[in-house]
């Protein structure tokens, strides 16, 4: 390993101090480092260097930002949690040195996470394409939020959804906005994504778990709401027009992440989402 990228969230307390410690640690190991200061607003960085590792120093939002840059370049992500929640970024500040040393010595496994490919077409031409670790959300904004969406999967019509919007999430993103909107939580190793309506007009519109091998198409139909957007990981926003089509499928790329074992996932469910069953009954 020769070069490391450190994505530093400038809004987090102690971030600069820990960043300096990481830079010094890497220097001793003979690894050059470059610090990218992330303000929580900017789009994915345009960096010319080829890095062997991307260290995310912030909260879950910083991980999402780092992952979108790293995945197509096959750069592993080392997520250190400086946020309030830290569901994806689950390496704590006091643990980073030991965990990073294990990674450099080849003693820590990297776990692959599925990401979405989202293509937006206007008049049959692709105008933009994004990848998302968490989700792609099509929604209305302003006072009149109700929108009409014609949704199909692998050419099979799901009908017209009248709702404030829909969330298409990966297993990683199933614990975020989708879960808050009543969607199911998926194990990160499940090859599927979730379609979750946001405040649907009909009670029959329920979340669906769909195979990641398929392709979803969402078409914007006429509606009272005129301000309609698609949001990628809650960070990249694109304004949509009537008849625009959003094509969502599994990306061929994967995010390779440290500290994201299945064991850590279920520990985070219990400790950070408060998920738990009742105590095991005593058998006579």
From TrEMBL:
One annotated Gene Ontology cellular component of this protein: cytoplasm
GO biological process: NAD+ metabolic process; NADP+ biosynthetic process
Catalytic-site annotation from UniProt: 60
Reaction catalyzed: NAD(+) + ATP = ADP + NADP(+) + H(+)
InterPro entries registered for this protein in UniProt: ATP-NAD_kinase_N (IPR017438), ATP-NAD_kinase_PpnK-typ_C (IPR017437), NAD/diacylglycerol_kinase_sf (IPR016064), NADK (IPR002504)
Pfam families: NAD_kinase (PF01513), NAD_kinase_C (PF20143)
Binding locations of NAD(+): 60-61, 134-135, 145, 162, 164, 235
Function description: Involved in the regulation of the intracellular balance of NAD and NADP, and is a key enzyme in the biosynthesis of NADP. Catalyzes specifically the phosphorylation on 2'-hydroxyl of the adenosine moiety of NAD to yield NADP.
Protein name per its UniProtKB record: NAD kinase
UniProt source species: Treponema denticola
